[in-house]
Specification:
By secondary structure, the chain is an alpha/beta fold. The protein is globular.
């Protein structure tokens, strides 16, 4: 937990989860629906964080399906357990994998933060049944590092400077800021079939501003301790966000998917 900059135990995590759901759930479920997610499927949601994706999965698999949602901190999702949805505290790197296989394994904004991404990827692939789908989604901040690509004045300049400082903190914690772009290659090298990928660049959304404010509050102490920002800069940026005229952009989200080969007869 100490290596993860955006600690889910912080109260700002709830606002971050809500904003991420608004920004990315339609994108996520379009891809999950496209691979055939539906009634009776068995799914593993790795590093669930918030409740929106586990609930969406449970609604789609119905009473005959199963959703296992795991995280190292399940405090934000444990109340949603019941029916098809099981919540379990689990570290995908250090804990034994689930003793079952799945039609779908999905992780969003998880691998980029892990210390041993290759090991986690292997665990998830091994958990697929033959013919099962792996769908991975991770940001690539290095691909588009700016908070405000249309830098018109001091407010945008400050937003971009603080985004750079947050990227510095993430890199110091071991995050791979160029990981998202590697997903298609990694899935192909893992011998998955039908590999494909797409990228999504949300910009100027209300949810982008909410996510930005929650993230700044979340890492405020770390920015100050590392002397990467001053209290005045942080307060000014938060005030600027309330005006609603900053065309903020989230880092590109790259979604990649592939299928475990079926057993040969």
């Amino acid at each position: 937990m100490t290596r993860y900059l955006l600690d889910n135990r912080r109260p700002e995590a709830g606002e971050r989860f809500a904003a991420l759901a608004e920004l990315f759930d339609p994108w996520t479920f379009r891809h999950l629906d496209d691979v055939g997610l539906g009634e009776g499927w068995r799914c593993w949601e790795v590093g669930a964080g918030g409740v929106s994706v586990p609930r969406g999965l449970a609604e789609r698999v119905g009473t005959n399906g199963r959703v296992l949602a795991t995280d190292i901190d399940v405090s934000w999702i444990e109340a949603a357990a019941g029916g098809a949805l099981e919540i379990r505290r689990h570290d995908v790197i250090h804990d034994p994998p689930p003793a079952e296989t799945f039609d779908l394994v999905h992780a969003r904004l998880v691998l980029v933060h892990l210390t041993d991404r290759a090991a986690a990827l292997r665990v998830m692939i091994d958990a697929l049944r033959p013919g099962g789908w792996l769908v991975l989604e991770d940001a690539d901040p290095a691909l588009q590092p700016l908070a405000c690509p249309d830098e018109r004045g001091p407010a945008e300049e400050l937003a971009n400077r603080l985004r750079t400082q947050i990227r510095t903190l993430l890199a110091q914690r071991g995050a791979d800021l160029a990981y998202g772009r590697t997903l298609p290659r990694l899935l192909r090298e893992s011998d998955l079939t039908d590999v494909n990928a797409e990228a999504y660049f949300p910009i100027a959304s209300r949810a982008c501003a909410i996510l930005e404010a929650a993230t700044i509050q979340h890492v405020r102490d770390q920015l100050l301790a590392a002397e990467l920002a001053t209290p005045a800069e942080i307060e000014t940026h938060l005030i600027n966000l309330t005006r609603g005229d900053l065309d903020l952009m989230f880092a590109p989200m790259i979604t990649a998917w592939g299928r475990k080969p079926s057993l040969r007869k």
